[in-house]
Amino acid sequence: MKKIVIALIALIAFSACEKTNYVDSPPQLQFTVLDENGVLVEDASVTLFTTYDAWYNIEDSEENMIATTDSTGTCLFTDLQEVYYFFNVEKGEELTNSTSNSSMEKPLQKGVITNISVILKYD
Fold this sequence. Notes:
Layout: H1 2-16, E1 28-35, E2 45-49, H2 52-56, E3 65-68, E4 74-77, E5 86-91, E6 95-96, E7 113-122
Parallel strand pairs: 1-7
Antiparallel strand pairs: 1-4, 2-3, 2-5, 5-6, 6-7
């Protein structure tokens, strides 16, 4: 009887184990956009540039990625590369992030969602 109970306990213990595989997902970048009063900004346009020159010259390129913030003032870019990105955020002509510091501090990393908060100022 003891052998049956031990076998039953072992069977239950092993059937409860779950194998988890780690998957290297591409980097992601999430923006939260606020105005200078701390209010979340919906429908702001966020553009990612892959090079400094493209950002500096505000070049329109097929390589640039554009997203629009939702009602929570956020947007998410997925399937990115492990590189530095430059960005521009604006809502119409009245709100912009007119700053010389529109880049990331370090390159994106696999499996990590990097969060950037941007405060737009009224022109």
